[in-house]
Amino acid sequence: MISTVGASLLANNLREQARSHGVSGYKGPLTGSLVSIKKPAFISTCTPDGSSALHCAPMTNIPLTEITEPAVTCSTCAACCCQLEVMLITDTGVPERFIDNDDWGGEVMLRLDDGWCAALDRNTMMCTIYELRPLICREFEMGDVECLNERQGIATAYR
Questions:
Q1: For 113-152, b where at least 16 C-beta lie within 10 A, e where not — what string?
Q2: Over the stretch 18-42, which tens digit does the pLDDT of each residue have?
């Protein structure tokens, strides 16, 4: 059993909780009356035996809308992968003018001052040596996990 002082303190606490959840007109821990609800809320009330109970105010269902990522196609590609460093690990016939050496002496695709691959046509955002592109470029599939991760990395290209 709960004392009168304890019940009073508990009632004040519950009223404050109800107020903070947008519930007005709360009449005390034993009656649990709710007069008006400004927003859906979970409130705690006191039961006659002194324990707490959790009650749910009426909830409004919000329709679920599926948001799907737009498909990556040639027309929606921003050539994000063309900003990555591409190591040349096989001979595919990449023209010498597009080859550079990294700090460790390995051959990589040349990137211009803007950070983009030198073989990328800036007007069309398409590879100018597509048929001769490096193996890494061939294996980097449009719309695959790596592609989507890179797209998120330069999200400003899609605004």
A1: eeeebbbbeeeeeebebeeebbebbeebeeeeeebeebbe
A2: 666 665 555 544 444 444 444 445 5
